[in-house]
Amino acid sequence: MTGHRIRWIWACAALLAIAGTNLAARADEADGRLDIYFIDVEGGAATLFVTPAGETLLIDSGYPDNNGRDRDRILKVLRQEAGKSHLDHAAVTHWHLDHFGNHAALASEIEIKNFWDRGIPEVLSEDKKFEERIGPYRAASQNQSRKLSVGDMLPLKSDKTPLSVKIVTASRDVIPNDGPPNPFAKAHQPRERDASDNAASLSFLLAFGEFRFLCCGDLTWNVEAKLMTPNNPLGQVDLFMVTHHGLPTSNNPVLVHAIDPVVAVMCNGPVKGGHPETLKTLQGVKSLKALYQLHRNIKVRPEDQTPPKFIANTESSSDTCAGTFVKASVAPDGKSYTVQIGKRGERSTYQTRP
Question: pTM of the prediction?
Fold first, then answer.
């Protein structure tokens, strides 16, 4: 076989490989699934959604700096795993740096069509550098970010299986306390008022057919109770992003036990979040079948954490951490979903609540 023919065969093989990669990247859009990527930003938050219509939504964007660590991890998942080159929507739950730190950096790399937040305050009492830190975000959004309030719906395209994302808390306000009585309401133990911006977090309730997913940013104890007492306006959910990285200033059992998730994902870091008190609350959830942690907490005993097979990253240092994500993928009819760790992790299948 001539050298020319060998080179030709190798070129064809390479083109086929590229084509296969592109087809795989578009498979989620082609087969009608909803994909949710919990990206490892080491104790911050960054959650990417790819809808059946091919739209992308990123909620929060992790820490800035660290040699672009979180920015690059988000871009890698967006481009290589989701097969997308832009964001249709980018939202900020609240104004702490581990949640909006890379919106501007991402906007310098890719197009972000719509910015969403709870409204930008002039000052932030707990962050003396807020005016300086918010500048890049203002510039990236051209001061045109859209304010989300309680009851608002994100304008996502919906096809055969209805898709919606509703704002259920914003700026310390909550949706009306309608619904059946919350049997856990009397267990609420009020705490001192949280004056931080955590308490003002946006909370997103996603519905895809019968599938339900809840993300509350860093919403804290008393506002969780305000949302969920005396009635439960949210009902039960299938998948829950554990609030505030698993810290005990959040994750009031009044909320966690009432929504009764089947699967929970905790976006913690090696030393941040994953607190034993929150882990105990989650262990008390009646329907919980699996708790995934983005990190092993090196300060918490192994027996107090979820089993090792549900922990995406076990390293104690960012220098050695692979930044493995957790992915949930909801079937086109919304009646089942899979959860896996990383690209090649074992997929576990769960049935959506009817």
Answer: 0.92
